[in-house]
Write a structure and sequence with these properties.
This protein is of the alpha+beta class and 76 residues long. The protein has 3 helices and 2 strands. A two-stranded antiparallel ribbon has the order 1-2. The longest helix has 8 residues, at 36-43.
Length: 76
């Protein structure tokens, strides 16, 4: 996850990035973007490339699901 974080830190339109763990061997990433251009830049950027290169090594196959946040509570 730390490698992903270092890549994402260079993406100005990835405004929030979370590496998450669902269980002992189940992990995910949650990203937030200010607009669709930021999302598409991320999905076609270095993290996506790294995930593709590690298919079959770190995981069987990554699943990418896009969603839209309809409400949020901002940090204080």
């Amino acid at each position: 996850m730390n490698q992903g974080l270092s890549i994402v830190e260079g993406e100005p339109k990835t405004v929030r990035w979370f590496g998450i763990q669902f269980g002992p061997s189940s992990f995910g990433i949650f990203d937030a973007f200010p607009d669709e251009d930021g999302r598409q830049a991320h999905l076609s950027g270095e993290v996506a490339k790294a995930l593709g290169e590690n298919t079959g090594v770190l995981f069987e196959k990554p699943t990418i699901e896009q969603l839209d946040v309809v409400a949020e509570k901002q940090p204080a």
